[in-house]
Amino acid sequence: MVTMRGWLAAITVVGLGVGAAAPCAAGDELDFDLLGEAPAPAPAVDEAAVAARRLLLEVHQGLGLGLLAATTGLCVVGQLNYQDLHHGGQTGRYEPAHAYLAYGTLGLFAVTGLAALVAPVPFAREGQGVDRTLWHKIALGASGAAMLAAGGLGLYSASRVGRLDQRRYTEIHLGVSYAALAAMLGGVAVLIF
Fold first, then answer.
1. What is the average pLDDT across 102-119?
2. C-alpha to C-alpha distances, 112 to 51, 74, 124, 162, 188, nearest whole angstrom
3. In whole angstroms, how far apart are CA 83 and each of 72, 88, 158, 172, 180?
4. In whole angstroms, what is the distance from residue 120 CA to residue 151 CA?
5. If you write DSSP's letter for every residue of 101-158 in order, what string do you get?
6. What per-residue confidence (pLDDT) applies to 140?
7. Stretch 179-189: mean pLDDT, rounded?
8. Average pLDDT for residues 138-156, to the nearest whole number?
């Protein structure tokens, strides 16, 4: 009759290609460590700061989606205003809506960015490198710069009414506004996709 010890000896002989296994010293059978030393405990995290960060970033996200809608609306009304002033009857019916949307969108951009900037960082972020958040910050920084440039160009082109070069400045203003919208769409897309 073959016992379990006999099977183990046969497996050892066949599997290792050697004779009988050397007996283990007493207490050495399970004296090994597969995982290495235990990692140091994680540093304590301020739960109140984590909750505040979560709240502010959720507010930032909601305001950001509203900002995207407002910027899209601003570009649409701006295009309609351009068409009316330079290719239509010059009725001026889109000017008030365009002005209100422009100032409101710039204000909303400032509040949205501020919500993200004041969010506390309760944990250390080491060596993140280039990630989606960095691309989001770069794209929205470019969008903010383009929005400020478009605002300045809009005010300047409005001061040029009746002059021959007004249309040229208005077209530059329109192009920079579309660039601001494109950068904003890129900044949102990098987080979604």
1. 96
2. 18, 17, 24, 37, 13
3. 17, 6, 15, 14, 20
4. 31
5. HHHHHHHHHHHHHHHHHTS---S------S-HHHHHHHHHHHHHHHHHHHHHHHHHHH
6. 97
7. 98
8. 97
Half-sphere exposure of 8 (CA within 13 A, CB side): 6
Kindly state the tokens that stand for 53. 């960060």
Q: Is the separation of the CB atoms in 63 and 111 below 8 Å?
A: yes
Long-range contacts of 115-122 (CB under 8 A, 24+ apart): 115/56, 115/57, 115/59, 115/60, 115/63, 116/56, 116/57, 116/60, 118/56, 119/52, 119/53, 119/56, 119/57, 119/60, 120/49, 120/52, 120/53, 120/56, 121/53, 122/45, 122/46, 122/49, 122/50, 122/53
Q: 3-class DSSP state for residue 167?
A: helix
CB-based contact 184:69 (threshold 8 Å) = no
Quick check: 162 pLDDT over 90? Answer: no
| Integer Rg of the chain from CA | 33
